[in-house]
Amino acid sequence: MEELGIHIGAVVTYQDGFDELANGNYIGRAFDNRIGGFMIAEVARLLRENNKKLPFGLYIVNAVQEEIGLRGAEMIARRIKPNIAIVTDVTHDTTTPMINKNIEGDVSTGKGPSLSYAPAVHNKLLALVEDIAKNKKIPVQWRALSRSTGTDTDSFAYSNDGCPSVLISIPLRYMHTTVEMLHRDDIENTIKLMYETVLTLSPKTNLNYL
Ligand SMILES: [Zn+2]
Q: What pTM does this model have?
């Protein structure tokens, strides 16, 4: 095997590709979290195409090693010291077999991005995102988490002296398989919600609880 370049520790990947199914559904491997990278790139593209000038510096980060302990986010949060973090990741479509709706919340694909209440999520920033969704008529689905979000939100929120953070998730079926499934409407709505949130924020945004 050595002569084929295959050695202990060699990285392999499944060959499964991308397929479009009926009714706006897409399947593929590792949408978790390549879709996040795609969506934040789309936000960047929209800002550029619409000639938006932001009154703050915007860092767009596709962080590595989320699955093994949020490590990339931990490093970059320390490096850039953000004032606010908007995080996106996938979340279970809880109608997927073996996922418990009572534990994970009532979320399914095609019904919009999912917003979470969680210790790492800043309530006022979350309320701001909720208002934007209402005003722009973007459907959202809710989850409540009592501990970690299992996403980079946790790394950003507790970085440095604390960083107001919010999580905008996209529902996904069959997570961590080669047939992960997403809905086109959710991709569009998650991009839109992040884009509108970026446009709403300013140095005057008051996230003070007092
Ligand atoms: Zn994952």
A: 0.95
Q: Please answer whether residues 182 and 26 qualify as being in contact, where contact means their C-beta atoms are separated by less than 8 angstroms.
A: yes
- Alpha helix positions (H), 4-100: 31-49, 71-80
Is 91 a domain residue? yes
Catalytic sites, residue numbers: 66
Q: How far is the CA of 150 from the centre of ligand 1 (A)?
A: 9
Q: How many domains does the chain have?
A: 1
Which residues are near ligand 1, the ion (C-beta closer than 5 Å)?
A: 32
Q: What are the pLDDT tens digits along the chain (210 aa)?
A: 778 889 999 988 888 889 999 999 999 999 999 999 999 999 999 999 999 999 999 999 999 999 999 999 999 999 999 999 999 999 999 999 999 999 999 999 999 999 999 999 999 999 999 999 999 999 999 999 999 999 999 999 999 999 999 999 999 999 999 999 999 999 999 999 999 999 999 999 999 998
Instruction: Write the single-letter amino acid at 101.
Output: K
